[in-house]
Predict the structure.
Amino acid sequence: MSAGPLRRRILAAAAVLLAVILAGAAAAGLWFRGRMIACLPRLDGSSALRGLAATVRVKRDALGIPTVEGSSRIDVARATGWLHAQDRFFQMDLLRRKGSGELAELFGPAALAYDREARMHGFKRLARAVLDRESPARRALLEAYADGVNSGLAALASKPWEYYVLRTEPRPWSAEDSILITYAMTLDLQDSTGRFVRELSAIRNELGSASFTFFAPLSTPADAALDGSLSDPARIPPPTELDLRRHGPVAGAGMAQMRLPRAGPWDDRQAPGSNNFAVAGALAADGGALMANDMHLHLGVPNIWYRMSLKWPGHEETGVTLPGAPTVVAGSTGRIAWGFTNSNAGTGDILVMSPSISPEMYHGPNGGSLVLYEKRSETVAVRGSKPVSMDFSWTVWGPVVADAPEGRQLVFHWVADDPAATNLDLLDLEDATDVGEAVAIAHHMGIPAQNFVVADSAGKIAWTVAGLLPKRIGYDGRLPVSWDFGDRRWDGYLAPRDVPTIISPGAGILWTANNRTVGGRDLAALGDSGYDIAARARQIRDDLSALVQSGRPVEPKDLLAVQLDDRAVLLETWHALLLRTLSPEVVARKPSRSALLQAAQKWEGRADVGSVAYRVVRAFRLAVAHRAFDPIFAACVDRDPDFTWTRLNYEQPLETLVSERPAHLLDPAYASWDDLLAAAADDVSLY
């Protein structure tokens, strides 16, 4: 047979095979498209929902945002569950799995680290305990919501498409799952292992007390606390305590060689930040107080919040819900409007367990008798692999989270491990008539400690911290302590009268942005788990003050303008420093710096998506921070590879270093601070 016919037969066979493959791919695509369409929510018509006492009406606006109107609260909860399942069931499933530590069952070994975080605290067991503590009426509400979820899921023509991709089936929703999503949010909003306290301890132990005071300030001159409290900048640690020039170079030649912080929720490049603020009715156009809230969490699709309005006799709420729960998290009832930001209050402490005669035992409360560590074991299902067993050692105060020198162990004592710290009292806001009642409710809400800003129709505004806070005796919680002798302890939780609260401030404005909100005794009561740099709060405060000083009545659009204020005020200092760094002499030594200078000179002063100058200046600030701080904290990283300085309130220390330029805190890799700044500018070109 000649080569020609054989070649034609091969080509013909290949063409047939390709056609079959393409036809199969097209069929699979059409099938998947059909599944995608089938799992879309029902937007019109009627649906039978078992358990309703009367008809519930759902109207969606042009954006698809539903208004649910029913004859009772429990009917509205049932219909809310139906809607959440129709629109967001897979998101709900991920939230409950995050809270229970069951993500690896869907995603395999890559999710085990997330599951370990939840399993360490046994949140699934706690969720059952929380549900048992609720009143029969509350449990009935959650059961109705769960029934609505399961009915809404069943009413879809096809299971959500994500389950086809994962080749698994959705499991029914239960009442305790709604508690688990609170724990999922707790894991997002709080430090579950005392990492921040351990990092502060590493700074104190490895670098010294003066370094701890300077690099981890609790208060700075640039803060924007509600009570106006400020502090002088801490002194630079002396060379007798910390002197980098005594050691060899640490820094590399570029960003790729630098010691970057671990990727995670607190990385400076991706840390979210929320804000809420209020204006008293005396300053507003219609006499009613105004409140604005922007609760930022990590970006995701879909958005974590679900907007809706709920109506039943005597009540009308509008705001955002969290799919998985029947409550409006933040919004308005017409009588009050409220919102949250993460408070960064200290809700957990690291306790040092002294060595005993056996590594299996520890000293009980108040230096008491020896107690055996409780061994808890969790079995985690893992997709595509064998189940994994996770073992944890527990004390009466909480789990062991790390080992310490000399045979000591570190235990994390955390509010969230107490079932009394989680409840559904957020629902009580539905009946609050003014800020006074709302603040009282906030003090017994079972949520992660949050800045709670509330306004009412009578014109009053207020701020407090919602959620339980520990009442510390004998220490401030910023560093690990021993409770062996009874002089340091928690005396339960702060009583409502002791929780910092501001009602009707004289200036008529309130603001928070994850920053330190108060000082003095109030700050001592709140504790510290890593307050954000005050730049966002300061900008909001200044914008609100400008509105007040304008003399004209404040309107809702003015608060929107504050939220949309994209001026990069924090970076003005860094823009000026970059221009000074890129002097003619510095640019002449490396021609590539010319393009960087040109980009920086086009500074608009705004965090605009089209602004190259903004990205350049922001990257320069981060590069300077890494080149300055990485060598300083190298000893901390050597002791603990997971150490990161990015959660510190580091803006003031960094600006002090680059302005005062202490030689003993400069990495020996550089001849001068000018060289460090030039290297940081070069790093920007590598992005």
